[in-house]
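Hi Prof. W.,

I finally got the Probable membrane transporter protein prediction working! I wasn't sure whether to trim anything, so I left the full sequence exactly as given:
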Amino acid sequence: MPPISEILPFVLALAAAGVVAGLLAGMFGIGGGAILVPIFFHVFGLLGVPEEVRMHLALGTSLAIIVPTSIRSFMAHRQRGAVDMQLLKGWAIAVPLGTLLAAAVAAKASSTELRLIFAVIALVLAFRMIFNRASWQLGEDLPRNPFKFLVGVAIGILSGLMGIGGGVLNNTFMTLYGRPIHQAVATSSGVGVLISLPGLFGYLWAGWGEAGLPPFSTGYINWLAVALLIPITLLMAPYGARLAHAMSKRQLEMGFGIFLIVVSAQFFLSVYS
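And this is what came out:
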């Protein structure tokens, strides 16, 4: 076991990351993966984790943290009867399949490639948030299979490659097809379970035996970060939610969109500078 003097800076840096991630996750009403991944990438860099495994570790650890929060959120939404269980049952294979495919891609991809993938998807999501209009609609109800199944696979792949719970992607899909935003948000909590659980095992497998991983890591999951971040983010999220209530929905969308553009720009710069 590493000496306390080596572990303490790691713990303090991760605790600070948890405070920021919890506040922002509470403000923007998401699981926090899009926030945690760039924070983890920079914190792991400050702590000397090699660049070759840093992005992989950030993605896997983010998905592991989403597991308990998504399960807790799903159970709460389901009790209120707000979840579209039919959609989730239809995606019980599609979404986990996509997430496992993402882990397989991550196992072969370089840190540079993963950062570029994250940056591109973040940029697309940012423009969706900034230019979003309630009038945008593709249909009156969700499409049928095989298109719906393929959308589930795509959400799993994109979320697995970004280390997120898929809330932004599923919300977009459901609202474009006429579903109310409250049902979309509630159902996204279940999508988060379908993504985070296979994602956890996928990144465990993908990073098994990799060199250069920090202490307390199994595959691309750092358990010290998981143990620290879950209680801190859960503690800080309500404070972020209070801040959110002082802002309009449009201000929140703009704020999160700008945040994603900044993150995307940082990743592009880290690759090309």
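The first strand starts at residue 217 and ends at 218. Does that look reasonable to you?

Thanks,
D.
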